[in-house]
Amino acid sequence: MANHTTERESVITIRGLYKSFGDLHVLRDVNLDVYRGENVVVLGRSGTGKSVLIKIISGLLTPDKGSVKVLGQEVADLNDKQLRELRLKLGFLFQNSALYDSMTVGENLEFPLVRNVKNLSRGEINRKVAEVLDSVGLKKTLHQMPSELSGGQRKRIGIARTLILNPEIMLYDEPTAGLDPITCIEINKLINEVRSRYNTTSIIITHDLTCAKVTGDRILMLLEGRFLRQGTFEEVFDTNEEQVKNFYDYNFINPPSSSHTTHAITQ
Question: What percent of the chain has pLDDT over 70?
């Protein structure tokens, strides 16, 4: 995949990051630069601290130690007002899409817009809602309730709701979790389309190797609280390191049949 980075401007800079929960050391001396316009994938098994990392980036969790700068601002130094302003530049897609069940799709999309952008006319709101619905391919769902949507559709609406404020940075937390293979392919394609259409920079948290290969300009493998390997998909997995090979097998060997046939990665 071509790297869309035209200049090496770091929009997220992390140095010496540590985070523990009691005796559980989740992140240990994590260092990371994310450059404008690139899709960075953080790979790791469940419970390895991937989601903790993006919650720290967005100020939802406080690190024990280290520096986290987002768009040039030290997140830990921001007051509540400054943190709210920074979060308007971040699109955060939660695992469960976090839609309000009592609101229609249109109302869900309007909510962050009306809450954060003052003095918009009804026409402007309607145009913006229609634009983001079109960008995720779900124009006809405007008046539907979240309960009427499939898992993949809810994920798309979750992405649309983050896009409505034109964020500079997208944070995807397990975007393909719980979805069937065909829908996973569609969501992976949409992540790339969002980057092209909205000029976003993205961190994609996943344990799905197909998602990593299709969406990532750069892959980082998080193991035991540290980035063990990074590079292109091929570079990360071109190794005899047992932990990395085990992770690959964990994803691509079929557990129910105990088969040792490696699944092909969807291109």
Answer: 91
Q: What is the pTM of this model?
A: 0.87
Collapsing DSSP to helix, strand or coil, 10 comes out as strand
Amino acid making up residue 43: L
Q: What are phi and psi of 243, to 5 degrees?
A: -60, -40
Both tokens of 142, joined, read 């405007």
Q: Which of 238, 202, 250 is nearest to 39 (CA)?
A: 202
> What are the φ/ψ torsions at residue 239 (nearest 5 degrees)?
-155, 155
Which residue carries 């069940």 as its tokens?
A: 101
Q: Which two tokens stand for residue 104?
A: 């229609």
Write the pLDDT tens digit of every residue in 6-19.
468 999 999 999 99
Q: State how far the alpha carbon of 69 is from the alpha carbons of 13, 17, 75, 78, 150, in Å.
A: 5, 11, 6, 11, 37
The residue type at 58: S
